[in-house]
Amino acid sequence: MPFEPQLPAEPLCLVFGDEDFLVRDRAKQIYEGWCAAAGGMDHEVVDGTVRNADEALQALAKLNEALQTLPFFGGNKVVWLRGANFLGDDRTASSAAVTDRLTELAKSWESFDWQGVQLLISAGKVDKRKSFLKTVKKFAALEDKTVSEKERGGRAAMVVRQRLDELGKKISPHVADELILLAGANLQQLHTESDKLAAYIGEREEVTRQDVHEIATRTKQAAAFALGDALGERNLPKLLRVLDEELWEVKLDTKKSPIALLYGLISKVRVMLFLREMVRLKWINPKGGYQQFKSQLEAIPEDRVPEDRKFNPKSMHPYMLFNALGHARKYSSAELVQAMDVLLRCNRQLVSSSTDDTLILQQALVQIVSKAA
To answer: What CATH number has the domain spanning 149-215?
Structure first.
């Protein structure tokens, strides 16, 4: 069944928030839905992206004119103030002239005859302390698309599933989460990745994990996971090959360093230690599937985990943790503690020794991955 967006019943709708993609997408849905219901050809879009207070006043003048001008052939009219960037608290928005004009318009809209007229405003940040918002919220539909860090993962998965559903495709929750892990949580990027996947699988209905790995764009952070994953897999040939590739990148990119690679390995071992302890405490079942793991992770009380996000498993991507759970099974807790000690000594050598960085890292990884006789 095709996706049918719900449209606001109020004649004025303000869609705003810090996630540009969600604001644009929702505003476009409303505008197209309202126009289709209104019929006619006299609908207007006013550009609200301005550089200074003078341009903001010009945009508001055009908006007011559009609202006051009746359709040439009669009927209903939809007006969209698109991408308004002067409703927040920046310099342009703080201009007395812009603030006063917004207040005047909001008050005039309280008594405005909205019969046959609908106004849509899409914006970024909106200052909720100003009288403009306090006035329009009395009679307008407000849709806040601000996304907290805690919500971002779930919202990202929703964008992927919704876009693929619009394209007639399906994706399982764990495959969607793996896409997010590789491509990042930028919603606009995930919308593009969903389009790419739909085109890539052709006539097939469902996106697979292999499809994601073959076609998805990888963020720099996802590329950095490769070394930690090879360590987790306890695959020495692969680990040394990936290390060689990463060290080559270090030579080409001055922003990268062997120390940064080491810190990524420390983080991986730390996560595996966390997971083994969570299994020991029976917070998670190591034999369950991804959805069960995700539910168990969410059920862990907040007061049982560290407040520091760097050490808090609940603040990490659930699919990354689930993937690391399989890796943690390949090491004992004692081996992981010993691995942290090896990496600590490796850190000291990288900082103080004249020995080649490649040799130091290779020796450390061989020590960690090799099983005791």
So the answer is: 1.10.8.60
